[in-house]
Amino acid sequence: MKKKRKAVHTEVPIKQPDISVGLTEEAVQQRVCLGLDNSDAKIRAKSVFNILKENVFTPFNLLSAILGLFVLLSGPKQNATFLVVVFINLFVGTIQQLRAKVAVEKLSLLSKIKIKVLRDGVEQDVDVDRVVLHDILILKPGNQIPADAVVVSGFCEVDESLLTGESDAVYKMPGEKLLSGSYVFSGTCKAMAEKVGKESYAAALANSTRGIKKINSEILNFYDKIIKFLGIFIIVLGVLLFLKQYFILHDSIHQVTLSTAAAIIGMIPEGLVLLTNVVLAVGVMDLSRKKMLVQEMYCIETLARVNVLCIDKTGTITEGKAYVSDIVPLREDVDPARILRETIWAIGDVNNTALAIKNKFPAQRAWLAEATVPFSPIRKWSGASFPGKGSYLLGAPEILLRNVVGDTSAVSAKLQEYAAHGARTVLLVHSDEKLALQENTHDTGLPGEVQPVAIVLLEDCIREESAPIFRFFQKEGVDIKIISGDAANVAYSVAEKAGVRNLSGYIDTFDLTEEELKAAVSRYSVFGRVSPEQKKLIVRTLKENGNVVAMMGDGVNDILALREADCSIAIASGSNAVRLISQIVLLDSNLYSLYYVVMKGRKVINNIKRSASLFLVKTIFSCLLSVAFLFLPISYPFLPIQLSLVSSLCVGIPSFFLAMQPNTKRVTGSLLGSILHYALPGALCVCVYVIGISILGKILAFSQEQVSTLCTLATGVSTFYVLGRISQPFNLPRLFLLLTLATGFTAAVLFFKGIFFFSGIGGIMWPILGVVATSVPFLNSLFTRFARKIAEKHRR
Question: Catalytic one among 37, 40, 312, 566?
Answer without folding.
Answer: 312
